[in-house]
Amino acid sequence: MNLCPLCNGLYFLTEPCPKCGTLLEDTGMLENFLGPYSPYLDEEILDRVDGVGPGECVHLLSCPRCSYDKRVVIDRLLD
Ligand SMILES: [Zn+2]
Ligand SMILES: [Zn+2]
Question: Where does the source fall among the domains of life (predicted)?
Fold first, then answer.
């Protein structure tokens, strides 16, 4: 079994927003946005999710100030 250090709270991303410099917030695994949050589900994202391997976890970082967001691929830790 492998785990994502972000999902498990082992560390947090501290990446500033490229637009306004506010620290981006990790809004969780992209998979959490499947379903009710359909605005996030354009085909590009679906392609990206499908392209992610079993050893990777995709997180969505968003800026609480200007609503910039980006997806980051996290390497899971092998247990
Ligand atoms: Zn994760
Ligand atoms: Zn921002």
Answer: Bacteria
Q: How far is the CA of 65 from the centre of ligand 2 (A)?
A: 5
Cα(17) to centroid(ligand 2), Å: 5
Alpha carbon distance 17, 25 (integer Å): 9
Total Cβ atoms within 10 A of residue 38: 9
| Per-residue pLDDT tens digits for 1-38 | 678 899 898 988 889 999 999 999 998 776 655 555 44
CA neighbours closer than 13 Å in the CB half-sphere of residue 18: 4
Residue labelled with tokens 């390497």: 75
| Domain residue limits, the chain | 2-78
Helix (H) or strand (E) holding 45: helix 43-51
* Ligand 2 mean position, distance from CA 79 (Å): 35
